[in-house]
Amino acid sequence: MKEAERISRLGTETAFNVSAEAGAFAALGNKMYPFHLGDMNIKTPANIIEAAVKALNDGKTGYCNNAGIPQLREALAEDINASHGTQYSMDNVSIQPGGKPVIGKFIMALMNPGDEVIYPNPGYPIYESQIEFNGGKAAPYGFVEGALNFAIDIDMIENSITRQTKALILNDMQNPTGAECSMVELEKLAELALKHDLYVLCDEAYFDVRYDGPGRSFVSIPGMADRCVILYTFSKKFAMTGWRLGAAVGPKNIIEVISKLNVNHESCSNHFIQYAAIEAIKGPQMEARKILDTLRLRRDTAAGLLNSIKGVKCFKPKGTFYLYPNITEAAQKIWARNYEEFRKNALQRTGVSICSRAHFGRQFEGEREWYIRLAYSGIDVAEIKEGLAKFKAFLEG
Q1: Which pTM was predicted?
Q2: Which of 100, 146, 191, 211 could cysteine-pair with 151, CB 3.0–4.6 Å?
Q3: Per-residue pLDDT reduced to its tens digit, 224-252
Q4: Overall domain count for the chain
Protein backbone atom coordinates (compact mmCIF):
# COMPACT_ATOMS: atom_id res chain seq x y z
CA MET A 1 0.00 0.00 0.00
CA LYS A 2 1.18 3.49 -0.82
CA GLU A 3 -0.43 5.78 1.72
CA ALA A 4 -1.66 9.26 0.88
CA GLU A 5 0.99 11.99 1.02
CA ARG A 6 -0.85 13.89 3.78
CA ILE A 7 -0.36 10.97 6.17
CA SER A 8 3.31 11.90 6.35
CA ARG A 9 2.22 15.19 7.93
CA LEU A 10 0.03 13.56 10.56
CA GLY A 11 1.45 13.64 14.08
CA THR A 12 0.36 11.72 17.14
CA GLU A 13 -0.05 12.00 20.88
CA THR A 14 3.11 10.32 22.14
CA ALA A 15 1.84 10.24 25.74
CA PHE A 16 -0.04 7.10 24.65
CA ASN A 17 3.29 5.50 23.71
CA VAL A 18 4.57 6.27 27.21
CA SER A 19 1.37 4.73 28.58
CA ALA A 20 1.98 1.51 26.62
CA GLU A 21 5.56 1.32 27.88
CA ALA A 22 4.44 1.89 31.46
CA GLY A 23 1.77 -0.78 31.08
CA ALA A 24 4.34 -3.28 29.85
CA PHE A 25 6.59 -2.40 32.80
CA ALA A 26 3.71 -3.01 35.23
CA ALA A 27 2.74 -6.27 33.49
CA LEU A 28 6.13 -7.68 34.49
CA GLY A 29 5.09 -7.35 38.12
CA ASN A 30 6.71 -3.97 38.77
CA LYS A 31 5.09 -1.25 40.81
CA MET A 32 4.24 1.61 38.46
CA TYR A 33 3.09 5.14 39.36
CA PRO A 34 1.00 6.57 36.48
CA PHE A 35 1.84 10.25 36.22
CA HIS A 36 2.09 10.09 32.42
CA LEU A 37 -1.46 10.38 31.05
CA GLY A 38 -4.26 12.82 31.83
CA ASP A 39 -6.86 10.10 32.35
CA MET A 40 -8.86 9.93 35.57
CA ASN A 41 -9.26 7.19 38.17
CA ILE A 42 -12.25 9.01 39.68
CA LYS A 43 -15.72 7.57 39.09
CA THR A 44 -18.25 9.54 37.06
CA PRO A 45 -20.95 10.92 39.43
CA ALA A 46 -23.78 8.44 40.02
CA ASN A 47 -26.56 10.78 38.84
CA ILE A 48 -24.86 11.07 35.43
CA ILE A 49 -24.51 7.29 35.09
CA GLU A 50 -28.16 6.84 36.10
CA ALA A 51 -29.28 9.35 33.48
CA ALA A 52 -27.38 7.43 30.78
CA VAL A 53 -28.96 4.14 31.84
CA LYS A 54 -32.42 5.72 31.83
CA ALA A 55 -31.85 7.09 28.34
CA LEU A 56 -30.79 3.62 27.18
CA ASN A 57 -33.91 2.07 28.68
CA ASP A 58 -36.00 4.81 27.09
CA GLY A 59 -34.71 3.79 23.66
CA LYS A 60 -32.33 6.69 23.00
CA THR A 61 -30.07 4.38 20.99
CA GLY A 62 -30.55 5.57 17.42
CA TYR A 63 -29.31 8.46 15.34
CA CYS A 64 -30.01 11.99 16.52
CA ASN A 65 -29.54 15.52 15.17
CA ASN A 66 -26.05 15.82 13.73
CA ALA A 67 -25.47 18.99 15.81
CA GLY A 68 -26.67 17.29 18.98
CA ILE A 69 -30.02 17.03 20.71
CA PRO A 70 -31.65 20.46 21.22
CA GLN A 71 -32.07 19.98 24.97
CA LEU A 72 -28.33 19.55 25.50
CA ARG A 73 -27.39 22.39 23.17
CA GLU A 74 -29.76 24.72 25.02
CA ALA A 75 -28.48 23.60 28.44
CA LEU A 76 -24.85 24.06 27.43
CA ALA A 77 -25.49 27.51 25.92
CA GLU A 78 -27.20 28.63 29.13
CA ASP A 79 -24.40 27.23 31.30
CA ILE A 80 -21.67 28.97 29.32
CA ASN A 81 -23.65 32.22 29.23
CA ALA A 82 -23.82 32.15 33.03
CA SER A 83 -20.06 31.70 33.46
CA HIS A 84 -18.81 33.70 30.46
CA GLY A 85 -21.26 36.58 30.19
CA THR A 86 -22.08 35.58 26.59
CA GLN A 87 -25.38 35.40 24.72
CA TYR A 88 -25.21 32.03 23.01
CA SER A 89 -28.25 30.03 21.95
CA MET A 90 -28.49 26.41 20.87
CA ASP A 91 -27.61 27.58 17.34
CA ASN A 92 -24.14 28.43 18.63
CA VAL A 93 -23.51 24.87 19.88
CA SER A 94 -22.45 21.74 18.01
CA ILE A 95 -22.08 18.59 20.10
CA GLN A 96 -18.95 16.54 19.40
CA PRO A 97 -17.65 13.04 20.26
CA GLY A 98 -15.13 14.54 22.68
CA GLY A 99 -13.19 17.78 22.80
CA LYS A 100 -10.42 16.71 20.42
CA PRO A 101 -12.59 16.70 17.24
CA VAL A 102 -13.19 20.43 17.72
CA ILE A 103 -9.51 21.08 16.95
CA GLY A 104 -9.56 19.43 13.55
CA LYS A 105 -12.98 20.77 12.58
CA PHE A 106 -12.06 24.34 13.56
CA ILE A 107 -9.00 24.09 11.32
CA MET A 108 -10.88 22.47 8.42
CA ALA A 109 -13.64 25.07 8.65
CA LEU A 110 -11.39 28.12 8.61
CA MET A 111 -7.87 27.35 7.35
CA ASN A 112 -6.94 27.00 3.70
CA PRO A 113 -3.79 25.15 2.59
CA GLY A 114 -0.86 27.50 3.02
CA ASP A 115 -2.50 29.54 5.78
CA GLU A 116 -0.64 29.90 9.06
CA VAL A 117 -2.04 29.02 12.47
CA ILE A 118 -0.23 30.11 15.63
CA TYR A 119 -0.32 27.49 18.38
CA PRO A 120 1.21 26.91 21.84
CA ASN A 121 4.45 24.95 22.20
CA PRO A 122 4.84 23.21 24.60
CA GLY A 123 1.21 22.34 24.08
CA TYR A 124 -1.25 19.66 23.15
CA PRO A 125 0.44 17.93 20.17
CA ILE A 126 -2.78 17.51 18.20
CA TYR A 127 -2.80 21.24 17.38
CA GLU A 128 0.40 21.00 15.36
CA SER A 129 -0.64 17.65 13.88
CA GLN A 130 -4.00 18.90 12.56
CA ILE A 131 -2.60 22.16 11.19
CA GLU A 132 0.07 20.38 9.17
CA PHE A 133 -2.13 17.44 8.15
CA ASN A 134 -4.63 19.86 6.64
CA GLY A 135 -1.93 21.68 4.67
CA GLY A 136 -1.33 24.67 6.90
CA LYS A 137 1.80 26.12 8.39
CA ALA A 138 2.10 25.59 12.15
CA ALA A 139 3.72 28.61 13.81
CA PRO A 140 4.58 27.94 17.47
CA TYR A 141 4.69 30.33 20.40
CA GLY A 142 6.30 29.58 23.74
CA PHE A 143 6.08 30.37 27.43
CA VAL A 144 8.42 31.95 29.94
CA GLU A 145 8.72 31.33 33.65
CA GLY A 146 7.16 34.10 35.71
CA ALA A 147 7.01 34.68 39.45
CA LEU A 148 4.08 32.35 40.16
CA ASN A 149 3.50 30.46 36.91
CA PHE A 150 4.34 30.41 33.24
CA ALA A 151 3.38 33.33 31.01
CA ILE A 152 2.71 33.42 27.27
CA ASP A 153 5.50 34.88 25.19
CA ILE A 154 3.35 37.63 23.68
CA ASP A 155 6.25 39.08 21.73
CA MET A 156 6.77 35.74 20.04
CA ILE A 157 3.12 35.64 18.98
CA GLU A 158 3.24 39.17 17.63
CA ASN A 159 6.45 38.51 15.72
CA SER A 160 4.97 35.32 14.22
CA ILE A 161 1.99 37.04 12.59
CA THR A 162 2.24 37.45 8.81
CA ARG A 163 -0.21 38.16 6.01
CA GLN A 164 -0.85 34.42 5.81
CA THR A 165 -1.80 34.08 9.49
CA LYS A 166 -5.43 32.98 9.76
CA ALA A 167 -5.91 31.82 13.32
CA LEU A 168 -4.56 31.57 16.84
CA ILE A 169 -4.99 28.66 19.23
CA LEU A 170 -5.26 29.66 22.90
CA ASN A 171 -5.26 26.98 25.59
CA ASP A 172 -5.86 28.95 28.77
CA MET A 173 -5.45 26.75 31.88
CA GLN A 174 -2.88 25.10 29.70
CA ASN A 175 -1.70 21.55 29.14
CA PRO A 176 1.13 20.83 29.98
CA THR A 177 2.26 23.90 31.95
CA GLY A 178 -0.90 24.72 33.91
CA ALA A 179 -0.42 28.34 32.80
CA GLU A 180 -3.34 30.74 33.11
CA CYS A 181 -3.55 34.00 31.19
CA SER A 182 -3.60 37.26 33.10
CA MET A 183 -6.15 39.89 32.09
CA VAL A 184 -3.28 41.89 30.59
CA GLU A 185 -2.35 38.91 28.39
CA LEU A 186 -5.95 38.35 27.31
CA GLU A 187 -6.42 42.01 26.40
CA LYS A 188 -3.19 42.05 24.39
CA LEU A 189 -4.23 38.90 22.53
CA ALA A 190 -7.62 40.47 21.81
CA GLU A 191 -5.86 43.53 20.42
CA LEU A 192 -3.79 41.32 18.10
CA ALA A 193 -6.83 39.29 17.01
CA LEU A 194 -8.69 42.46 16.03
CA LYS A 195 -5.71 44.12 14.40
CA HIS A 196 -4.87 41.10 12.22
CA ASP A 197 -8.41 39.72 11.81
CA LEU A 198 -7.60 36.37 13.42
CA TYR A 199 -9.98 33.59 14.32
CA VAL A 200 -9.26 32.04 17.72
CA LEU A 201 -9.76 28.52 19.02
CA CYS A 202 -10.27 28.83 22.78
CA ASP A 203 -9.42 25.42 24.17
CA GLU A 204 -11.24 25.50 27.52
CA ALA A 205 -10.94 21.81 28.37
CA TYR A 206 -9.75 22.75 31.89
CA PHE A 207 -11.84 25.90 32.38
CA ASP A 208 -13.83 24.30 35.21
CA VAL A 209 -10.88 22.46 36.77
CA ARG A 210 -10.04 25.49 38.89
CA TYR A 211 -8.97 25.50 42.54
CA ASP A 212 -8.63 29.20 43.29
CA GLY A 213 -10.33 32.37 42.09
CA PRO A 214 -12.94 33.06 39.41
CA GLY A 215 -12.64 31.82 35.84
CA ARG A 216 -11.77 34.14 32.96
CA SER A 217 -12.53 33.41 29.33
CA PHE A 218 -11.10 35.07 26.26
CA VAL A 219 -14.58 35.16 24.70
CA SER A 220 -15.76 37.42 27.54
CA ILE A 221 -13.62 40.28 26.20
CA PRO A 222 -15.71 42.62 24.01
CA GLY A 223 -15.61 41.63 20.34
CA MET A 224 -14.03 38.22 20.87
CA ALA A 225 -17.16 36.05 20.90
CA ASP A 226 -17.63 36.96 17.22
CA ARG A 227 -14.29 35.44 16.21
CA CYS A 228 -13.80 32.60 18.74
CA VAL A 229 -14.78 28.95 18.90
CA ILE A 230 -14.77 27.41 22.38
CA LEU A 231 -13.60 23.82 22.77
CA TYR A 232 -15.75 22.40 25.56
CA THR A 233 -15.47 18.93 27.04
CA PHE A 234 -17.33 16.98 29.70
CA SER A 235 -14.26 14.82 30.33
CA LYS A 236 -12.51 16.77 33.07
CA LYS A 237 -15.11 18.47 35.26
CA PHE A 238 -17.36 15.42 35.43
CA ALA A 239 -14.73 12.63 35.22
CA MET A 240 -16.14 11.49 31.88
CA THR A 241 -12.93 10.96 29.90
CA GLY A 242 -14.08 7.68 28.35
CA TRP A 243 -17.60 8.89 27.57
CA ARG A 244 -16.22 10.93 24.63
CA LEU A 245 -18.49 13.94 24.60
CA GLY A 246 -17.72 17.61 24.03
CA ALA A 247 -18.84 20.59 22.02
CA ALA A 248 -17.85 23.44 19.74
CA VAL A 249 -19.40 26.74 20.79
CA GLY A 250 -19.09 29.88 18.69
CA PRO A 251 -20.50 32.08 15.92
CA LYS A 252 -23.51 30.51 14.19
CA ASN A 253 -21.97 30.52 10.70
CA ILE A 254 -18.86 28.64 11.88
CA ILE A 255 -20.90 26.21 13.99
CA GLU A 256 -23.05 25.38 10.96
CA VAL A 257 -19.90 24.39 9.06
CA ILE A 258 -18.67 22.29 11.98
CA SER A 259 -22.04 20.51 12.17
CA LYS A 260 -21.82 19.80 8.44
CA LEU A 261 -18.45 18.21 9.12
CA ASN A 262 -20.19 16.11 11.81
CA VAL A 263 -22.41 14.65 9.08
CA ASN A 264 -19.37 13.67 7.07
CA HIS A 265 -17.28 12.34 9.97
CA GLU A 266 -19.46 10.58 12.53
CA SER A 267 -23.08 11.41 11.61
CA CYS A 268 -23.83 12.40 15.18
CA SER A 269 -22.49 12.06 18.71
CA ASN A 270 -23.69 9.23 20.94
CA HIS A 271 -27.41 9.69 21.54
CA PHE A 272 -28.03 8.39 25.06
CA ILE A 273 -24.87 9.92 26.50
CA GLN A 274 -26.20 13.36 25.59
CA TYR A 275 -29.02 12.90 28.11
CA ALA A 276 -26.40 12.05 30.72
CA ALA A 277 -24.63 15.29 29.79
CA ILE A 278 -27.83 17.28 30.43
CA GLU A 279 -27.89 15.77 33.91
CA ALA A 280 -24.22 16.65 34.35
CA ILE A 281 -24.96 20.31 33.62
CA LYS A 282 -28.34 20.75 35.27
CA GLY A 283 -28.27 18.13 38.04
CA PRO A 284 -26.71 18.31 41.53
CA GLN A 285 -23.10 19.54 41.46
CA MET A 286 -21.99 18.08 44.78
CA GLU A 287 -20.10 15.17 43.19
CA ALA A 288 -18.40 17.47 40.69
CA ARG A 289 -17.19 19.60 43.61
CA LYS A 290 -15.86 16.45 45.30
CA ILE A 291 -13.88 15.66 42.15
CA LEU A 292 -12.33 19.11 42.36
CA ASP A 293 -11.53 18.65 46.07
CA THR A 294 -9.84 15.34 45.31
CA LEU A 295 -7.73 16.89 42.57
CA ARG A 296 -6.80 19.87 44.75
CA LEU A 297 -5.43 17.59 47.47
CA ARG A 298 -3.44 15.65 44.89
CA ARG A 299 -2.04 18.88 43.44
CA ASP A 300 -0.97 20.19 46.83
CA THR A 301 0.63 16.88 47.77
CA ALA A 302 2.53 16.43 44.51
CA ALA A 303 3.68 20.06 44.23
CA GLY A 304 4.94 20.04 47.81
CA LEU A 305 6.92 16.85 47.30
CA LEU A 306 8.42 18.01 44.00
CA ASN A 307 9.56 21.27 45.54
CA SER A 308 11.29 19.31 48.30
CA ILE A 309 13.63 17.70 45.75
CA LYS A 310 17.02 19.34 45.30
CA GLY A 311 17.35 20.81 41.83
CA VAL A 312 13.58 20.84 41.10
CA LYS A 313 11.33 23.92 40.93
CA CYS A 314 7.58 23.49 40.55
CA PHE A 315 4.78 26.03 40.29
CA LYS A 316 1.40 25.21 41.87
CA PRO A 317 -1.16 26.16 39.19
CA LYS A 318 -4.64 27.37 40.06
CA GLY A 319 -6.16 24.86 37.67
CA THR A 320 -5.77 21.80 35.40
CA PHE A 321 -4.43 18.54 36.82
CA TYR A 322 -0.85 18.90 35.61
CA LEU A 323 2.44 19.98 37.11
CA TYR A 324 5.34 21.07 34.92
CA PRO A 325 8.45 21.26 37.09
CA ASN A 326 11.80 22.61 35.96
CA ILE A 327 14.26 19.74 36.52
CA THR A 328 17.32 21.27 34.85
CA GLU A 329 19.61 21.18 37.86
CA ALA A 330 18.48 17.73 39.01
CA ALA A 331 18.90 16.24 35.52
CA GLN A 332 22.44 17.62 35.31
CA LYS A 333 23.35 15.96 38.61
CA ILE A 334 22.45 12.51 37.32
CA TRP A 335 24.14 13.14 33.96
CA ALA A 336 21.04 12.62 31.85
CA ARG A 337 21.89 13.17 28.19
CA ASN A 338 18.37 13.66 26.87
CA TYR A 339 14.73 13.50 27.88
CA GLU A 340 14.16 9.92 26.80
CA GLU A 341 17.13 8.67 28.78
CA PHE A 342 15.90 10.56 31.83
CA ARG A 343 12.34 9.29 31.48
CA LYS A 344 13.25 5.66 30.90
CA ASN A 345 15.73 5.62 33.79
CA ALA A 346 13.12 7.12 36.09
CA LEU A 347 10.62 4.42 35.13
CA GLN A 348 13.05 1.53 35.48
CA ARG A 349 14.58 2.68 38.76
CA THR A 350 11.53 4.14 40.53
CA GLY A 351 8.40 3.01 38.69
CA VAL A 352 7.43 6.67 38.20
CA SER A 353 6.05 7.09 34.67
CA ILE A 354 6.14 10.66 33.33
CA CYS A 355 6.05 12.65 30.13
CA SER A 356 8.66 15.23 29.26
CA ARG A 357 8.73 18.52 27.43
CA ALA A 358 9.62 16.52 24.30
CA HIS A 359 6.11 15.03 24.23
CA PHE A 360 4.52 18.45 23.75
CA GLY A 361 5.96 19.82 20.53
CA ARG A 362 9.25 20.32 18.77
CA GLN A 363 11.82 21.98 20.97
CA PHE A 364 12.92 25.48 20.05
CA GLU A 365 16.49 26.05 19.01
CA GLY A 366 18.58 27.02 22.01
CA GLU A 367 16.27 25.65 24.71
CA ARG A 368 18.32 25.20 27.86
CA GLU A 369 15.83 24.42 30.62
CA TRP A 370 14.50 20.90 31.18
CA TYR A 371 10.87 20.19 32.12
CA ILE A 372 8.73 17.15 32.78
CA ARG A 373 4.95 16.87 33.06
CA LEU A 374 3.20 14.99 35.83
CA ALA A 375 -0.55 14.33 35.63
CA TYR A 376 -2.15 13.60 39.00
CA SER A 377 -5.66 12.88 37.72
CA GLY A 378 -5.15 9.12 37.69
CA ILE A 379 -3.18 8.47 40.87
CA ASP A 380 -4.26 8.55 44.52
CA VAL A 381 -2.55 10.59 47.24
CA ALA A 382 -0.94 7.56 48.91
CA GLU A 383 0.70 6.53 45.63
CA ILE A 384 1.72 10.11 44.88
CA LYS A 385 3.61 10.16 48.17
CA GLU A 386 5.15 6.74 47.64
CA GLY A 387 6.13 7.32 44.02
CA LEU A 388 7.58 10.79 44.50
CA ALA A 389 9.57 9.63 47.52
CA LYS A 390 11.28 7.13 45.22
CA PHE A 391 11.67 9.82 42.55
CA LYS A 392 13.31 12.12 45.12
CA ALA A 393 15.75 9.38 46.12
CA PHE A 394 16.55 8.76 42.45
CA LEU A 395 17.34 12.43 41.78
CA GLU A 396 19.19 13.11 44.98
CA GLY A 397 21.30 9.98 44.80
Answers
A1: 0.95
A2: 146
A3: 999 999 999 999 999 999 999 999 999 99
A4: 2
